[in-house]
Amino acid sequence: MSIEPVAGIEPPYYAVVFTSVQRATLDGYEETAARMPALVREVPGFLGYESARTPGGLGITVGYFRDEEAIAAWQRNGEHQAAQRRGRAEWYENYSVHVAKVERSYSFERG
């Protein structure tokens, strides 16, 4: 498995930051979490994502989208909406979502 950040993207674009704290019981979470990347890749204007989770359950996922229409398309996805409902009902103690317009972006790669 390769671990690397999303390379610099030509601005402007949007970053959607989803920060969550998981509950102790996560029945069905892994299957749903594994499905979301394939679904979001189908959204026109999706640019990539990065995700990390601590052993204590704090998770941060940043999704990158070309425009607000792409974010809205992801929000309207029925399977994503079902995952959100289940997350609120079962998997998360709390979460926050922040949407930001990115005006500058760059990256570095050794080698």
TrEMBL record:
The keyword Oxidoreductase applies. Residues 13-99 form the ABM domain. InterPro entries: ABM_dom (IPR007138), Dimeric_a/b-barrel (IPR011008), Jasmonate_Hydroxylase-like (IPR052936). One of its GO terms (molecular function) is monooxygenase activity. It comes from the Bacteria. Keywords: Monooxygenase, Oxidoreductase. SUPFAM superfamilies: Dimeric alpha+beta barrel. Its EC number is 1.14.-.-. This is Antibiotic biosynthesis monooxygenase. It comes from Streptomyces xantholiticus.
